[in-house]
Amino acid sequence: MTHLITESAAMEDFGGHLAHACHTHSVLHLCGELGVGKTTLVRGFLKALGHKTTVKSPTYTLVEPYQLNKRMIYHFDFYRLGDPEELEYMGIRDYLEGNIICLIEWPEKGGQFTPLPDIKIQLFHHAESRLLEIKAYSIMGQSIIANLSMEN
Ligand SMILES: Nc1ncnc2c1ncn2[C@@H]1O[C@H](COP(=O)(O)OP(=O)(O)O)[C@@H](O)[C@H]1O
Ligand SMILES: [Mg+2]
After folding, report:
1. Nearest CA to 109 among 89, 87, 81, 151?
2. Cβ(30) to ligand 1 under 6 A?
3. Ligand 1: centre distance to CA 98 (Å)
4. Which residues are within 5 Å of ligand 2 (an ion), measured at CB?
5. Residue located nearest, by CA, to atom 16 of ligand 1
6. Which ligand is nearest to the CA of 4?
7. Quick one: how many helices (H) and strands (E) in the chain?
8. What does the alpha-carbon distance between residue 27 and residue 9 come to, in Å, rounded to a whole number?
9. How many Cα atoms are found within 13 Å in the side-chain-facing hemisphere of 138?
10. Mutate to test the pocket of ligand 1, among 4, 14, 30, 40 (most ligand atoms within 8 A of CB)
11. What CATH number should be reported for the domain holding residue 20?
């Protein structure tokens, strides 16, 4: 599935649609260069689930946790990860337990330690707009994409 998004507000709206399309225990990879809109999408995702305050980019902390409606949403950014093994030391597997959704920017920097995705969203600059390419990597991922196409 591909999707053209022409402005920042629409990127947040798309993040909101995605949040409603997601199932508990989903892992989403967000790929694309700096400034392409990954964090903007996550901001919309969190707002749609009821988060009211700012969404900080977890570039330096690796992860920001959000508790929303008895569910934990973990926003990861692996951009500054020096060594993928750091994910092993931080206990990355523990973040996959229970009622969770993980959104991961720069998943490729975590190598084999990055949790496998249900869906991967690749973002591209497209003139002043952004092009999103969304692919499923699991049955749950297919269901998320099916839910998304019903919403839009
Ligand atoms: N669809 C879009 N069209 C134009 N500008 C956008 C779009 N989505 C996001 N932006 C802008 O691009 C920048 C993206 O920043 P950010 O979301 O932090 O990127 P990333 O996390 O990928 O580095 C922000 O200034 C945002 O307002
Ligand atoms: Mg970012």
Report:
1. 81
2. no
3. 31
4. 38-39, 57, 105
5. 37
6. 1
7. 4, 7
8. 24
9. 16
10. 40
11. 3.40.50.300
What is the extent of the structural domain holding 110? 2-151
Q: What is the pLDDT of residue 60?
A: 83
- pLDDT confidence of residue 149: 84
For position 98, what pLDDT does the model report?
93
Neighbours of 32 (CB within 10 A): 20
Domain count, the chain: 1
Residue 42, token pair as written in the block: 């996550």
Given the structure tokens 């926003």, which residue do they identify? 75
Walk along the chain (152 residues) in steps of 10 and give the mean pLDDT of each run.
95 97 95 97 97 90 94 96 94 95 98 97 96 98 93 64
Looking at residue 126, its pLDDT comes to 95
Does the CB atom of residue 59 touch ligand 1 within 6 A?
no
Backbone angles phi, psi at 13, to 5 degrees: -60, -45
Read off the pTM. 0.97
